[in-house]
Write a structure and sequence with these properties.
This protein is α/β, with parallel strands linked by helices. The chain has a single domain, classed as Glycosidases (TIM Barrel). 42% of the residues lie in helices and 16% in strands. It has 15 helices and 12 strands. It has an 8-stranded parallel β-barrel with strand order 3-4-5-6-7-8-10-11, surrounded by 5 helices. Strands 1-2 form a two-stranded antiparallel sheet. Helix 8 packs parallel to helix 10. The longest helix is centred in the C-terminal third of the chain and has 22 residues. Bound molecules: (3S,4R)-3-hydroxy-2-oxopiperidin-4-yl beta-D-xylopyranoside (XIL). (3S,4R)-3-hydroxy-2-oxopiperidin-4-yl beta-D-xylopyranoside binds next to loops.
């Protein structure tokens, strides 16, 4: 991969840093797991390292599994968390706060408080927002899943929801995950567990995109899924469906891979190639929920070798996206193990994010900063040539 180039690169940024030494630094640098000083310089910030127009994002912790933990709402209560969120990222994705069960808890009641707070935070910190999500088989409220609605009523419910939620944030959401996880691992549409497809047929997916586009013509509208990092049955199904929708003139603008990776399964080596084939359809692509979980030893602490392997996965995922034109959005699913969903959902696995529970930066964090700076410098050289 890149180690040799990284050495030169580090020297280059250090040299570049000198004339620009207005960069703020913390009074007390701490050491991190690489043994390097844990500086707060802008040169150690993901959003500053990123090339122009390339957004580095994170999920904003709250709702979902957090409600069962013994800490208060992370986004509104954890000051250190908020500070890093604002400093490091140029894109934010509500982890749960825009999902149906959260934002539309009763048929006649929306709860916009948490989503509004995130959009407002993003605006103040000059961040873009990825909206997540409008049509999904999971995290739907009981009133919807267990309601006794006719097909006509359900269609009206979905249309009203999309129009209301997308309309409320029109102009403030860069990308919407309109349809999330509509295929199973074999590449079959989820005709049983997805209430919309089961009750209304596959055509409802196109309608969801049309309604979202009407409500916010500026937002880029995405299909989003896990297990589609590689060229496989599931990503093939998206490839075929998107071509059909494009032929019908449906406003689909992007295809995104979540990127919930595990060191158990190896890195999806054809990620770049797979993103390229979607880009060739004229689409934006994105990595939207990257994390890299691992089997933890009995101590609960990852070994240095595990952290190196994890850093390598993060670096490869970033490189793949950077290499593909119109892959302009790269989001990690939380930046600290303190709030990661992984230990709650995957028994025995953990340490999936780029910072420890104490916000100490892991090798994966540095790898991302280095990879972004390298890409940014490459862009500069290119523009001078
Ligand atoms: C997860 C959240 O991180 C948890 O807090 C919640 O309890 C369950 O959902 N794919 C997605 C995300 O599209 O919305 C999921 O987020 C992770 C998998």
């Amino acid at each position: 991969m890149r180690p040799a180039r990284l050495v030169t690169f580090t020297l280059a940024t250090t040299a570049l840093a000198l004339p620009l030494s207005a960069a703020p630094a913390t009074a007390e640098p701490r050491s991190d797991e690489r043994g390097a000083p844990h500086s707060n310089s802008v040169f150690d910030r993901l959003r500053w390292a990123a090339p122009q127009g390339f957004h580095v994002g994170t999920a904003v912790a709250g709702g979902g599994h957090h409600l069962e933990q013994d800490y208060p709402d992370p986004f509104t209560h954890d000051r250190q968390y908020r500070r890093i969120l604002g400093q490091q990222f140029s894109s934010v994705s509500p982890e749960n706060q825009m999902k149906w069960e959260f934002i539309h808890p009763e048929q006649d009641r929306y709860d916009f408080e948490a989503a509004d707070a995130i959009v407002e935070f993003a605006d103040r910190h000059r961040q873009v927002v990825r909206g997540h999500t409008l049509l999904w088989h999971s995290q739907n409220p009981a009133w919807l899943e267990q309601g006794d609605f006719t097909a006509e009523e359900l269609r009206a419910i979905l249309r009203e929801h999309i129009t209301t939620v997308v309309g409320r944030y029109a102009g403030q959401i860069q990308q919407w995950d309109v349809a999330n996880e509509i295929f199973d691992d074999q590449g079959n549409l989820r005709t049983q567990d997805n209430i919309w497809i089961r009750e209304l047929g596959p055509g409802i997916v196109a309608d969801a995109f049309r309604w979202a586009h009407e409500a916010d013509p500026e937002a880029l509208l995405f299909f989003n899924d896990y297990g589609v990092e590689s060229d496989n049955a599931k990503s093939d199904a998206y490839y075929a469906l998107i071509q059909e929708l494009q032929a019908e003139g449906v406003p689909v603008h992007g295809f995104s891979v979540q990127g919930h990776l595990s060191t158990r399964y190896g890195f999806p080596g054809d990620l770049e190639q797979n993103l390229r084939r979607f880009a060739a359809l004229g689409l934006e692509t994105a990595v939207t929920e990257l994390d890299v979980r691992m089997d933890l030893p009995e101590s609960g602490e990852p070994t240095p070798e595990q952290l190196r392997q994890q850093a390598d996965y993060y670096e490869q995922a970033l490189s793949a996206c950077l290499a593909v034109e119109d892959c302009n959005s790269f989001t990690i699913w939380g930046f600290t193990d303190k709030y990661s969903w992984v230990p709650v959902f995957f028994e025995g696995e953990g340490s999936a994010t780029v910072m420890t529970e104490d916000f100490e930066r892991k090798p994966a964090f540095h790898t991302l900063v280095d990879g972004l700076w390298e890409a940014r410098l490459d862009c500069w050289w290119d523009s001078w040539r």
